[in-house]
Amino acid sequence: MGKSGKRKAENARAKKQPAVCIVPNLLYLGPLSATSNLDFLRSEGIVHVLSIGRSASSHFDISIDTPQGSRQLQYSRLALIDDKASDIGPCVDSACEIIDREAAEGGKVLIHCSAAISRSPTIVAGYLMKRCGFSLRESLDKLVTARDAISPNPGFLAQLCAMEAEIFDGETTFNVPLVGGRTKLANYLLAAPND
Length: 195
Fold this sequence. Notes:
By secondary structure, this protein is α/β, with parallel strands linked by helices. It has helices spanning 3-16, 38-44, 89-104, 119-132, 136-146, 154-167, 185-191, and strands at 20-23, 27-31, 46-52, 63-66, 69-72, 74-78, 108-113.
């Protein structure tokens, strides 16, 4: 199987994986398919679905029971193309605001893109650095441990490195060669020493 066929198979597998909890009682990451699993949304108490990409997920008019009472499921979309030249900064900032609002109200958020490989994990990594104080390395380790298919495109990784340096006074904890196509992030994290 060639590179293209292998990548298509990985994307198809990732699209079928369920959503995973990244920040307990607050933040989940998953593919588009997770947004139509109403049993999952209800059982986890997810009250906000945040789509990262060109098109939004399907909308369902349902109520979700939470410890704070019943809430209508909300949907938001942040436009981001999975291209190394796309600017992730505004999307990370907007996602942080949405997650902060839900956290203040005791809500839970599911962030997704098509397969939860590049766009949505990138935004979640930015959130973990900006709001949870994680280094980029810690953020990526957490994401890969929860969902091994993640692989932000090289441009997104470079921007996350720059974001980390801005947050942590010029320091970055993640140095991956960003040449050619995507690096299999899980393999890199397992092979590289954690400084």
